[in-house]
Amino acid sequence: NQIFLDGYICKEAVYRKTPLGREIADLLVAVNRSYGKSDYIPCICWGRNARFAGNFEVGERCAVWGRIQSREYMKKISEENAEKRVAFEVSVSKLELL
Length: 98
Hints:
The chain is globular, with a radius of gyration of 15 Å. A 5-stranded mixed β-barrel has the order 1-3-4-6-5. 7% of the residues lie in helices and 63% in strands. The protein is built from 1 helix and 6 strands; from the N terminus they run E-E-E-E-H-E-E. The relative contact order is 0.28. It has 98 residues and is mainly beta. The two termini are 24 Å apart.
């Protein structure tokens, strides 16, 4: 399970710390396709990669290496109803600005 992305930061990075003190940053990377289309790929960085990614600016080109992972979560639909959903994201092992 390996993935390489060459794309652009399309949303301001969200850097934070978990309750246990681990550093984490969420990125949204736009990867261009043929015919003027793009895919928007959520990426999650940990530790030193998170600190580095926290300084990225919207529009910067970056390269991302990592793996695809999934996670389940509950989406509240109404006061009484919730629905189980699955989210997919790239867990980043290496990244650099291009």
